Amino acid sequence: MKSIKIEVKWAILFSIMGLLWMVLEKVSGLHGEYIDYHLYLTNLFAIPAIIVMVMALKDKKRNFYNGQMSYKQGLISGIILSVFIAALSPLTQWITSYVITPEYFPNVIKRSVEVGYYATTEEAEAYFNYPNYAKQSAIGALIMGVVTVAIAMIFIRTKSK
Asked: Of all residues in the chain, what percent are helix, strand and coil, respectively (each to 5)?
């Protein structure tokens, strides 16, 4: 357990950050009044997400590998971290959907039909719902986490002399 303690810690911190981001989106009106901008502005979450992933890898390098971490060691650590984040994502999506902003799905369904993104309310409802978002968040967390780590480790790894 000690070998994955850092990944568990950072997965929890990442999840908390994601929930705080959802609160920020809600209070800024992106789940209501300014929902037309949500599609674009929600992608800014990539910035803090990458920062947290890099901080996690640096923590692992410093406090587990004593400052000497190979690309492979970091990649394995990052994949483990990504798996934990993906495992937590259905819970964070549930908290987002039912606690933080329960009005998001009705708002985005209504608006997506109004602007013609979907022809019918039923089509929009088939996409904008908790089960679909829970699956997407888990798969997206895993894929984006692994890609982020694979790139970040090029810079974080200990370079051989």
From this structure: 80, 0, 20
Q: What is the pTM of this model?
A: 0.94
Series of mean pLDDT values for 10-residue runs along the chain (161 residues): 90 98 98 96 96 98 96 97 98 98 98 97 98 98 98 93 65
Per-position b or e across 75-93, b if 16+ CB within 10 A of its CB: bebbbbbbbbbbebbbebb
Task: Report residue 157 CA to chain centroid gap.
Answer: 23
Taking CA atoms, 117 is separated from 34, 108, 113, in Å, by: 16, 10, 6
Structure-token match 């640096």, residue found:
58
